[in-house]
Amino acid sequence: MPRPRSLTTADLAAAALAVLDRDGLSGLTMRAVAKELHVATMALYRYVPDRDRLEVLVVDQVLGGVDLSVPPGDWRDQLRALLDRMRVAVTAHPAAVPLLMRHRQSAAATLHIIEAMLGVLAAAGFTGRDRVLAQRTVIGYLLGFLQNEHYAALAGPGTAAMAELAAAEFPYLTETAAEARRLGPAAEFHGGLDIVLRGLTLPES
Fold it and tell me: What is the pLDDT along the chain (205 residues), one digit of tens a residue?
């Protein structure tokens, strides 16, 4: 009987991402990925120990191509560029959002992105506690936005329903929901990020 073909990490990652994109997070199983690769399920365990490792490979596949170079100029613009590149990469694979949150401290791609962000903050003058808070604040904004965009439907039926409430009872809610329906995801992301970045101030010397 011929020996099963050897698989590369790239093969595994691409197959796992294809399953995730097609079948969603619940469909990402060792059996499904093995089927995608046309190998027996048990053969897959020669390369990865469990689904958890498959998930890490997916995160690396989604974010591994993010450009880590920073444009010249203001540190806020540099952070904005890195965060927007992450958003665009994840938007192409929305089912990966929970995995990004779960493995952000273990996937190599996320570690490299965080390192790039910390480098921007360090060069700007953030140190110690201030750097910790600044980095976690911007990452928290990104993760929260991605969840809202892909799992709460920013301009979906819920927003539409709020816009149709009785204006006499909910004047601010109806007005704001109507405005929200006119915002695209990119405009909302950049507008909110601008607010966050304006709130970050360099530590006093």
Answer: 344 568 999 999 999 999 999 999 999 999 999 999 999 999 999 999 999 999 999 999 999 999 999 999 899 999 999 999 999 999 999 999 999 989 988 899 999 999 999 999 999 999 999 999 999 999 999 999 999 888 776 556 778 888 889 989 999 999 988 888 888 889 999 999 999 999 988 876 5
This prediction has a pTM of 0.86
Under CATH, what is the fold of the domain 63-199? Tetracycline Repressor; domain 2 (1.10.357)
Outline where the chain has alpha helix (H): 9-23, 30-37, 41-44, 51-63, 75-91, 97-102, 108-124, 128-151, 157-163, 171-180, 185-199
Q: Which architecture characterizes domain 9-49 according to CATH? A: Orthogonal Bundle (1.10)
Residue ranges of domains in the chain: 9-49, 63-199
